[in-house]
Protein 1
Amino acid sequence: MSLIGQHNNGNGLVVSGPQLRPRKKEVAMSSSEETGGSLSESQIAVHWREEEYLYPSAGFIGQANAAEPAIYKRFSEERFPECFREYADLLHWDAYWHTTLDTTNPPFWKWFVGGRLNASYNCVDRHLATKANKAAFIWVPEPETEGAKAITYQELYRRVNEFAAMLKGFCGLESGDRVTFHMPMVPDLPVSMLACARLGVVHSEVFAGFSGTACGGRIADSGSRVLVTIDGYYRDGKWLDHKAKADEAVAVAKSEGVEIEKVLVFRRNPGEYHSASPMVQGRDYFVDDVIGDYLRQLVAPVPMPAEAPLFLMYTSGTTGRPKGAQHSTGGYLSYVAGTSKYFLDIHPEDTYWCFADIGWITGHSYIVYGPLALGTTSVLYEGAPAYPDPGRPWRIAERLGVNIFHTAPTTVRMLRKLGKDEPAKHDYHFKLMCTVGEPIEPEVWRWYYESVGKAEAAIVDTWWMTETGGFLASTLPALKPMKPGSCGPAALGIYPIIYDDDGEVVEAGSGKAGNICIRNPWPGVMQTVWGQPERFVQTYYARYCQDKASTDWRDWPFMCGDGAVQAEDGYYRILGRIDDVINVAGHRLGTKELESAVLTVPEVAEAAAVPVIDEVRGRVVEMYVALQPGLSASPEIEDKVKRSIEVQIGKVARPKNVWIVPDMPKTRSGKIMRRVIASISNFADVGDITTLANPDVVEGIRRQVYKQKTERGEAPRELSAKELEEIQSYGKAE
Ligand code: WT7
């Protein structure tokens, strides 16, 4: 279908330039009615208007790490794969590699083969000569009375060594073993990660907001023998008792056949234990007790093969079982160091604040590994964005002199909603801001630019995912203008391609939507799904592989799982996931995971999760449930359903509403028509229901849901054409 497809002014290259005020263009938009026929899932169009370019300031350009257009030439396809030497050369290698890219066992690519390095050495030790007393992290506890605490590279060095000595001496861990962390935003988390990296132990951090059960499943999947946790932490003004989750996690792992031998419990305030959960004798140990035996010990960083796994990061997909994305040491670290330098424009003297959680890939790549590899100073914030008021982030930025700010659209929306005028009251100046995790609406983008960035910060909208280790598309901030709502061209050395559902290539720059893939391997790409190599091949490569016998990377495009369009200027717009994933406040939740959690409630016969458009969180989940025969709806069952999700996945996934319905709308083959209930949940037209096996149930559900929503004060919200299409075609594959 033809799309927006309007030209943009400018050739994309910036020499210098005044700040342009964005102006909306009047653009004729096509709709599905005009093109006739129904759209396939991957063809959903973006109906945001094409925005005009904005240019970074001459001051920004003057200091940028990537300021010469020649950098695009250095990373052009003819130079692939050697172009990535430039990233790898940012690191210290104990042994230099002999083969940049080994493709002999596709799609299990190997980068920098023959090379050896240690991630902990690269992030800590090598900075000591020049930066020992520079802050590596400035930790900001949520309670403001506590004040910020700086951890210098020297201190980080000591703490990492001592904890590594403890992991080795006390837990007997060695390279190749896995360790699970269930840790919030405290400095002990990066210390633990780097301690593992020092030994070549593979870490697997589970987001602290996830439940003990979810953590237990991941422990079992990774085969960890050690769990690292904490007594509790502050969030939104509340002390959260966290240790209890460890007990659950250990029990769940055990039920899946994996025995945790030791639980290492940090205490947020060493020496004081604030948890109702008792310590289990012979299993649970306070880190601040045991570490006393390891003080002053140094552990030599183990030179790891470049392709040794550094960590696992679990993520959601189409089926219920989470996938452990396995990331490498050499390729991954090179990629995050290189992209941090060029796209985030991190210099060692910057004060950088990535307002994400280390429990997600963003935190691994762009709080811990990338920024530390470059020797910068990072802010680590414990708490919630608007606690105790929406001025908090700007107070932190002002007080600490933050000049690079990195967060997700959901946080921007929340801060805008709660404190539109707050940024102007604070004396901070960002040179660069990053947005990541979901598409950002041009309206929200503009508030970010004008209010948060004070119209002086360059913005990068970075598109990527857990599996890709680092950015796939973004503007290089000094070289390409910003275009609100578009993430920009492909990142350096990344060559995307868009396919339609029939496997035909969508013409580059045509503005037509399809499934975006990356044609080439890159150093940051995951190595495999931990323990499930077939699933790795199946999920990411099977669909568009040209020839399974080929060892030529050109035959193995990587399927990202997003719909996208590319405009004529080469900029991409991301339309969202094409698999059964709902992106809630930047957190990826698999509908199958949600539904299987609910199906554990004995009263429930059927469950279907659908997305609801939300002003702040992007999407939230509503759960439709049909009960076992003979049972009738009750608030108790509704609570049980909510609890089941909280317990098995975590509070982040708690559905906004649970609708207990007499029957689900179904196709003749018995599949739940999710697009119909998704439409109802969003007050949208349910569309054609004549092909349903039971069209008569729809009106009843609609009435029930509208009535209860009205009682709960939920008003219909006008949806954009893009949102409407997403909802009305939700789960269409069924
Ligand atoms: C999904 C990946 C990237 C780290 C955090 C999320 C969506 C990510 C953008 C962006 C539009 C984006 C995609 C992607 N996404 N960044 N800049 N613009 N959409 O990692 O949990 O693996 O989620 O987030 O849909 O597939 P994740």
Protein 2
Amino acid sequence: MKAVVADPLGGPENLKYMDQPTPQPGAGEVLVKIEAIGVNFIDVYFRNGTYKAPETPVKLGSEGAGTVAAAGPDVDLPVGQRVAYAMARGSYAEYALVPRKLLVDLPNNVSFEDAAAVMLQGMTAHYLTRSTFPLKSGQTCLVHAAAGGAGLLIVQLAKIAGATVIGTVSTEEKAQLAREHGADHMILYTQPDFVAEVKRLTGDRGVDVVYDSVGSTTFHKSLDCLRPRGMLVSFGQSSGVVGQFDPLVLSQKGSLFLTRPSLANYVSDPAELRQRASDLFTWLADGRLRLRVHKTYKLADAAQAHRDLEGRKTTGKLLLTP
Ligand code: NDP
């Protein structure tokens, strides 16, 4: 089969489109024939070594949709069943091995492309807004990189929950896109003081929660945007890692809460995973959730997709097709 691997670790130029042996499913595993592949920033971290993988060359891609090609001896899933998943590495390929417990059945009214566009970032938006800090009507959240893959989905799920959404982005075009997806107020955080603007918009109170995927350039200012006892959910680092942090700062800035969650810990229970995916498929079907696909690239062009994502050139989702 054809696959894209990182060999060696490093920049996008190290992505190799090559022949690899088609894997065979063992106990608890399913071989999925991939029809659509989701691109995520996590793929960049495995490509450049920020996140460590045990194998060489490193397999890439943590999200996909397709059909069951073969099932392990103890797995009761028919060949041809439509499925989708997130958080199993190796989807940058024509076939991928996926643990059964990470697969969800794909309803007929959800396309492979939509599934590959919603599983990872959509379930992330779901756990951030429903479990990590369950947003309620009347609350206000701040969403950084609000026109990004995770960002546009968090904006929409926060609106479904009835919250007020303040978003940050780098350009006016991205601000407009986030508004079109429901954001109430947009700030260009590339201009000096987004903290003052958040204070102004909240009548000096601060927001209840900040969903921060940007990391290095926003982390400390995000703390200044919170109300007393508010929560900073630091869930990514598209601008670079946050580094050392003294918890005493949380006390000084108003008895704040800080968490650094990962999707893996919010979908480890298969019932919870299915519930999150089912909510997303329902909202897609009834029109409350809209997907924006920035571009669909050929698998062989994965390096260009990475360049565009890292270069802040994209909005919404990037897809690959094998
Ligand atoms: P995005 O689509 O959000 O792309 C990254 C965006 O970050 C850019 O478009 C850009 O938006 C913004 N950004 C700000 N500074 C920089 C910079 N210096 N370089 C590049 N981008 C920058 O990506 P994803 O939605 O895939 O992921 C965002 C982050 O969230 C990643 O760190 C990812 O790993 C993390 N994540 C974490 C999860 C978890 O469970 N913990 C799950 C999913 C994602 P702008 O131009 O508007 O500033």
